[in-house]
C-alpha cells in the first residue's frame, strides 16, 4: 500500500468534515482570497488555464486540523512532537514513485505550466509557499527545510534564503568553494513532513529521519532525475535544480509574510530548475500565509521549548507559542517550580532560535487564558528582579523593529530578547495568592431564589 502522503491527508480532512470542494472554475489569482474565507481546508477542482491540476489550501490553518495530522488532542501536539522526535527513523529509498509519473527536462522545463498563485496585494509575484526543500553537504549530510520560491522566469525562481538556516549555511559553504548548490523542492507532502522540515533541528540531525519519527515509519524517498538528491516519493510535484553561485544578489519580494506583514524586497540567490517531475493528476499545495505557516511553526517552537526546559532540568507543565506572535516570536510556559527555576526556565526558553519574548509562570495558571496570564504577570513580577534582557541575539529579517534594511546585501540582523519570570517569587508563601471566593458559594444557588 502506498505511504500516506498529501492526498491521503486531504481524505482524512474530508472524512472529518474539514474539506470544502469547489468545482466551479477558479482563476489562480483568486484562490488565496477564496481559500482564506473558508473555515475548513479547500480543494479547488477546476483551475482556469491548468486542466491537469487541482489546488488544495488551508490544510493546517487551524490547530484542530494540525491535530488530525498528528493524531492527537490539540493541546498535546507539542508534547507528541517532542516524544516522537526522540525516536527518529531513517528514510528508505524506493525505485519508482508517484512524484515522477511525468518528467520534464531540458527544453521542456516550464514553470508557467504550474498554477503558482498570486496570493497577496503587495507580493512581488506569484510564489510557491509550501515547500519541502532538500539539500546535502558532504560533511553535514542531508537537510530538509521549507523556503519560499518567487517566480522569475519559466526556468528560474528566487529562494528566500535570507534568514539563518542550515540550507543557508550549506549554500554559503558551496559559495566559498565557488560552486552552485544542488537542491530539490518537493511540493504537496504530508503535514508531518512539513513539520519536520520546519523544525530547527541541530545541523547534524536529519529532518528526514525526524519525519520518519513523526510518522512512526521510514519516509519513502526516490532518487531525483538530474541532481544527486532524494525527495519524498509521494510528493505531488518536484523541482530539481541548483542555487546559482551568485550569493544574495537578486531582488526577491515582497512576500506576504508569516509575521502577517507584507514584507520588503530582499536580496536572495536564484534557483535554476533543471527538471520538473510530478504526478499525472497533480494537486498543487497553496500554503496560505500567514496562518498555515504559523500553525506549523507553533508546535515546532513549543517542542524546541520543551527540549530546552528538559535540558535545564525544569519540569514543564504546559507550553504555548501564541499564534498572535506568529508561532515563532514568543513562548509562554507553566512549570512545577523549585527555587530558582523560574529564572532557569526563562534562560532556557530564550535560547530557542527566534523566540524573542518569554513568560514563565507556575502550574496553577492556565497559560491559554490571557487574563490569568496578565494576573500572574501583575502580581508575581518585580521588574527589577524578574525581567531578563539579552542584547544582540540572532533575529529574523522580517521583524521591522530590527531595521534589517540598514544591513548590506546578505547581512544578518540581531535582536534584543526579553524574558519575564512570573512564578511566585522565592520567599513569598503560596498562601499569599489564595484566590478570592464568595462566602457560601458552594451552598447557595441563584435559581433557588428566582
Ligand atoms: C511554510 C513555511 C515557509 C517557510 N518559508 C521560509 C522562507 O521562505 N525562508 C526561510 O528562511 N525560512 C522559512 N521557513 C522557516 C524554515 O523552514 C525553518 O527555519 C527551517 O527550520 C529551516 O530548516 P534548515 O535550518 O534545516 O535549513 C518557513 C517555514 C514554513 C513552515
Based on the model shown, name its key terms.
450 residues, alpha+beta, 9-stranded antiparallel β-sheet, 5-stranded mixed β-sheet, binds flavin mononucleotide
- CATH structural fold name of the largest domain: Pnp Oxidase, Chain A
Q: Sheet bearing the most strands, described? A: 9 strands, antiparallel
Class inferred from helices and paired strands = alpha+beta
> Which descriptor suits the 3D outline?
globular
The proportion of residues in beta strands is: 25-35%
Tally of separate domains: 2
Which hetero compounds are present in the coordinates?
flavin mononucleotide
Contiguous runs where pLDDT drops below 50 for at least 5 residues:
none
What share of the residues lie within helices? 10-25%
Quick one: CATH class of the largest domain?
A: Mainly Beta
The CATH homologous superfamily of the largest domain corresponds to: Electron Transport, Fmn-binding Protein, Chain A
Rg: 23 Å
Count of strand segments: 23
The DSSP helix count reads: 11
Mean pLDDT: 95
CATH architecture call of the largest domain: Roll
Distance between the termini: 64 Å
Layout of SSEs?
Elements: H1 6-15, E1 19-22, H2 31-35, E2 41-44, E3 54-57, H3 63-70, H4 77-85, E4 92-94, E5 102-105, E6 127-128, E7 131-137, E8 141-145, E9 149-153, E10 156-158, H5 166-176, E11 181-187, H6 191-198, H7 207-215, E12 220-223, E13 230-232, E14 237-243, E15 250-252, E16 266-268, E17 270-278, E18 283-286, H8 291-311, E19 315-320, E20 330-336, H9 341-350, E21 357-362, H10 370-380, H11 383-386, E22 387-394, E23 414-422
Parallel strand pairs: 1-2, 3-18, 4-12, 20-21, 21-23
Antiparallel strand pairs: 2-3, 5-17, 6-9, 7-8, 7-11, 9-10, 10-17, 11-14, 12-13, 14-17, 15-16, 19-20, 22-23
The chain binds flavin mononucleotide.
Flavin mononucleotide binds at residues 129-130, 143, 145-148, 160, 163, 165-167, 197-200, 207, 287, 293, 296-297.
